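During data preparation, a discrete fold description was generated, and the record follows.
___
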Amino acid sequence: MLQYSTTHRTNAMTDIVTQAGSTPFILLYTGTPPANAATAATGTLLASLPCSATFGTVTNGVLTANAITSASAAASGTAGYYRLCTSSAGTTVVAQGNVYTTTTATTSAATTAAPTLTFASAPSVVNGQTVTGTGIPAGTYVLFGGGTTTLTLNNDVTVSSSATITFGGDISFNSAAFSTGQTVSVTSFSITANGA
């Protein structure tokens, strides 16, 4: 597996902050993300959330967003992806990613210094979702195994049996389904550089 220095990972995340400029917005859309950030948006624009003039701070390859202002949903639908753009127009895209519904699951076996988690039944997660809980390092996500009882992660973890594990994403909501006029709020947003 390819790995990068913390300095490289931090510089990559700092570049996102710089590219976002002084009027960044997070735009939430229905559907799946386009092939890449240079491809035109697809789906329905659900909400445009203004961000702080300095988008975020970076520590050890993790970008943590500053304040994101709530906004009313412009349309009804289920958010599938987000785009971080330099303005509400969405014409210059800095980054994009999936929107996930936060979910939890309880382990059925202990794991000691290994990149796997085991569950009695398959948790409702997909590859790429973030993983948090006691004994799980920051920046951990599901590499593969989504939809099965054994998940392989990008980091070694040490967790006990019956541990509560939380799965999410860069942006996660308790429910990603929004109605026109509903207040859309993001309480936290972070991006972890790959290659740790």
